[in-house]
Amino acid sequence: MGASAKAVSAADWRADFPALDQSVHGQPLVYLDSAASAQQPAAVIDAVSRYQREDHANVHRGVHTLSHRATEAYEGARDKVRDFINAGSRTEIVLTSGTTEAINLVAQSFCRPRLQPGDKILITHLEHHANIVPWQLVCEQTGAELVVAPINDKGEVELSTLLGLIDERVFLIGIAHVANALGTVCPIEKVIEHAQGRGIPVLVDGAQGVPHLDVDVQALGCDFYVFSGHKMFGPTGTGVLYGREELLESMPPWQGGGDMILEVSFDKTIYNELPYKFEAGTPNISGVVGLGTAIDYLQSIGMANIASYEQALHDYMVVELRKVEGIRLIGEARHKASVQSFLLDDIHSHDLGTILDHQGVAIRTGHHCAMPVMQHFGISGTSRASLAFYNNHDDVDRLIAALGKAKEIFG
Amino acid sequence: MNEAAHEMQDLYRELVLDHSRNPRHFGRLKDPTHTADGINPLCGDKLKLYLRVNAAGEIESSSFEGTGCAISVASASLLTDTVTGLPVEQARACSAAVAERLTTGDRALELAANLENLRALDGVRHYPSRVKCATLAWHALHSALNQDTTPATTE
Question: Domains of chain B, with CATH numbers?
Answer without folding.
Answer: 3-153 (3.90.1010.10)
